[in-house]
Amino acid sequence: MAEIKEAIQRLPESPGVYRFYNADSELIYVGKAKNIKKRVTSYFSKSHGLNRKTLRLASEIRSIEYTVAFSEFDALLLENNFIKQNQPRYNILLKDDKTFPYICILKERFPRIIYTRKYIPEQGEYFGPYSSVVAMKNVLDLVRKLYSIRTCSLLLSEQNIAQGKFKVCLEYHIGNCKAPCAGLQQEEQYQEEIEQARNILKGNISIVYQYFKNQMQQAAINLEYEKAQKFKEKLSTLERFQTKSLVVNRDLTDIDVLTITSIPDYAYINYLQIKEGAIIYSKTVEVKKKADETDEDLLSFAAQELRAGNNLTILSNVPITLLDEDTENIIPKIGDKKKLISLSIKNGLELKKDKEILREGKKSKQLEVLSILQKDLQLTSLPLVIECFDNSNFQGTTPVASMVRFANGKPDKKGYRHFNIKTVVGANDFASMQEIVGRRYKRIMEEAGPLPDLILVDGGKGQLSSACDALKELGLYGKIPIVGIAKKLEEIYYPEDPIPLHINKKSPGLLLLQHVRDEAHRFAITFHRQKRSKAQIKTEIEELKGIGRQTADKLLRHFKSVKKIREASLEELTTLVGRKKAELVKGKTIEATPQVETTPQETPEGPK
């Protein structure tokens, strides 16, 4: 639940659609909002006043996705598309056949203009969908007032009209229809009016503007001011309520939309899939950049990875290199396609803002912990870089050591180092600590590399004193803060101070030191086990009569393990070590010696 609340804080205060997923990553609810952040927050900020279904929905939410839209109307249409496509179980509205209304010019001899909620392409030419029923009806009423379009459903065939089967109705007498049913209006004249009406429905209102302007001017010349005012009002009505959606357009079908928004270290790529004029899939991803990668390269790679179908048209904001020669890449400059590009970029920018807020929050939290550690240890500067050393051996055999590096409170695994102890024989952890600390910082000084802000030694006064001796030999003592952390009581030791420091066990600073120490312990033990296991296997192979150290080394380098040596064919072994030695190896049963597990009593320094 804490992760959900944190995600809510990063939601945009924009219109759009939000989607709730459960623990199984199943889409369980789709909603629209004028302000996504406020709407989603309402599911978790209060429990009273919510019905049982909503409370249960809130309890199942494990992740949230969203898609921003240009307006609340577009969010309404987008919500409808997601619900129809995915059928989430907590959505009831919009799951039936009822959908947004269209205006349709029917395929008839004298076409009627109707509104409908069913989309049947064979029936006629559709316009919409309209996000507002009121807006749709106003446009339809305006068309009927401007032009004499019939409303009856009579079959106006040439034969029926010629036989005089129909009589004029009230619509003719009040001036709404010119009675094509009675042969009083020719088909060519009627089709001209339909074409003018089509311009209004398409949104090409320049022709209509000119028509209104001419009518108003003519009425004004004739001093018919009341008539001129009516034409002015009709134009205002058309401008105010002609609200065809820019998100859903039936002419845009089987199209993929891919856009990229870039900053120096990251790129944000949005993918929209358009099917039959509807956005049926939306995905935004963050890509961490590598060296010398262009936006074109990144988007071309994303096109291969993200595309869910076989659409042959891709809209993008930068050129895409396509593997399929049949696929067309378009970078639109104007129109509805350009508006889809703008919507896609807007979604990419929202993810960018979300990720930046998240990164800033994590960075701020890490700096807060480092600030607490600085105060706990009374350091003069923030310990942005911490290096920790640890030893490991088992009964004095195969002694090794490790160093881990933390930057900004997080592991910097590229800075981890393993050490084989070279100058110390047996289980002498103090001498081993002095050797590895000396080797580490001698090399840094030779390479003029950056020194850490804090050195941490896993151990008490003895290990710390040995590490300090190494720094003194290099002339670094007193220039780098160094402390030791002892187990059991988690005591912090300072150089030349016999009294340890006890930090509050709940302090984030101490928790960070423990994390660094435990990571160094894990890294050292892992390396020690690998070396010990390899030494045991090597010894086992050497025990075979006729197999020496060089042959054992060659076999292990090639096959990596006894199991693979045992499984190798005689021909493979012959190629590597010769026929005679291969027969010796295959003639013996090589049993892998079990690895010795670290007991609870074995410490990073090993049993002493």
TrEMBL record:
Gene for this chain: uvrC
UniProt region (Disordered), positions on chain: 588-608
HAMAP family: UvrC (MF_00203)
Annotated PANTHER family: UVRABC SYSTEM PROTEIN C, UVRC/OXIDOREDUCTASE
Domain UvrC family homology region profile: 271-471
Protein name as it appears in the record: UvrABC system protein C
Cytoplasm listed as a keyword: yes
Residue stretches of biased makeup (Low complexity): 591-608
One Pfam entry name: HHH_5
Key words of the record: Cytoplasm, DNA damage, DNA excision, DNA repair, Excision nuclease, SOS response
Protein localization: Cytoplasm
Entries under PROSITE patterns matching the protein: GIY_YIG, UVRC
SMART domains membership: GIYc
Role according to the record: The UvrABC repair system catalyzes the recognition and processing of DNA lesions. UvrC both incises the 5' and 3' sides of the lesion. The N-terminal half is responsible for the 3' incision and the C-terminal half is responsible for the 5' incision.
Assembly behavior: Interacts with UvrB in an incision complex.
GO CC terms: cytoplasm; excinuclease repair complex
GO MF term (any one): DNA binding
Major location (coarse): cytoplasm
GO biological process, alphabetically ordered: nucleotide-excision repair; SOS response
